[in-house]
Amino acid sequence: MSDYTDIIYLSAAMIIFSMLTTNTAKSFMNTSDTVVRSDIEYRAIAIAQNEIDQVKLLSRDSEQVLKSGSNSYKYTNYPRTIIESYGSSDQYNDQFTMEATSELIKENDLLVNRYLITVKVINKSISPNVEVELKYIKAFEK
Amino acid sequence: MNVGIVTSFVIGGLMLISVLAFNNSVMNSTIETTTSVIAQNKIDDLVTVLTNDISRLGYNTGTADNFLINTGTTMKFKGDIFDGDETKNLDYDVVEWTFSNTAAGSTTNPNDYILTRTWDPTPNGGTGDEEISTYTVTHFELKYFNGQGQATTDPNVIKQIEIEIVQESGEPYYTNRAGEANYYRSVWKRTIIPNNLMF
User: Fold this and answer.
1) How many angstroms separate the CA atoms of B79 and B95, rounded?
2) What is the DSSP letter of B155?
3) What pLDDT does residue B86 have?
């Protein structure tokens, strides 16, 4: 080292290099986070679709099930926790919370009652939580 | 001994180690991201084909006995899988999904097995026109339920089909010094109610 200038140059180079590595590491962390989140979202959407499918299966005499306030209201005990097991011997599992509501759409239709079903599935295994929301309109003939 | 040269070598050596460690980290992250995205795309493609088939189950068949085989690993059914390929009014197809215990040789993952889709566009006529597609998955399982959500094996009362797929990356994203390979895993599980079995 001839003088302090070299040390200053070296320090500056090391700072710049460490900033580069830190930013690159952050970038890769964000990418990994996105991959994991998309995987969880994929499963959460499937769970929400399952619930929507159950509504699709309702026959025309089951309108009470979607009527908020009725004794047979489908979503009385919601939100509920769903633990899904996966794998050949159910060796993996994942926990979701499902919120669901049914709301009669107010409209001047003399023939049909329509209900807006909103299903929200939340996974808290990662921060911030992964949330997906699906909406579906079910119609019943009056 | 020139103190300046020694100091330069020490600092230069540290910098070189840092660069190598950084390069190693970048390489591992890239491998992990790439294998995970490939695994996700593979399962997404498989789910797209599978859900299309299931949603067409029983469609335009003119019959109520749409299941030909329904076991935990095989499902064979009738359905008009694609619009526009009809040569007559009730020109339904037959599709079979079979998960075998044959290890897939096309990947280095020892957990991969072969899932086969056989599509016969003319089950009542021509032969030899079946299209066979193979996929590599780690686990594939089918369960069947009636309208009340109770498990059943009776093909006449099946209204819901639960499908579970576990897909692992074909190549490891990390192998430790002991030689243990880690594979990226993606899962999909869904209970589908085909419209044509609904009532």
Assistant:
1) 8
2) T
3) 62
The ranges of chain B with pLDDT < 50 are: none
Strand order in the sheet with B113-120: B67-70, B74-79, B93-103, B113-120, B131-137
- Residue A100 pairs with which residues in a beta bridge? A119
Complex ipTM above 0.90?
no
pLDDT of residue B88: 56
Is the pLDDT higher at A23 or at B8? A23
CA distance A113 to B28: 56
A35 Cα to chain B: minimum distance (Å): 7
Q: Tally the C-alpha atoms within 13 A of residue B44's C-alpha that lie toward its C-beta.
A: 11
Please tell me what DSSP assigns to residue A17. Answer: H
Establish if B101 touches chain A: CB-CB under 8 angstroms. Answer: no
Q: Looking at residue A57, what is its pLDDT?
A: 83
Contact present, B162 and B190 (Cβ < 8 Å): yes
Of B147, B129, B188, residue with least CA distance to B164: B188
Contact residues, chain A to chain B, C-beta under 8 Å: 1-2, 10, 14, 17, 21, 24-25, 28, 31-32, 35, 38-39, 42-43, 46, 49-50, 53-54, 56-57, 59, 84, 86-88, 92, 94
Output the pLDDT for position A91: 85
**Residue B52: DSSP 8-state:** H
Going along B32-138, which residue ranges are E strands? 67-70, 74-79, 93-103, 113-120, 131-137
Domain borders along chain A are 4-141
The confidence score (pLDDT) of residue B74 equals 94
| pLDDT computed for residue A56 by the predictor | 86
CA gap B29, B31 in Å, rounded: 5
What pLDDT score was predicted for residue A88? Answer: 83
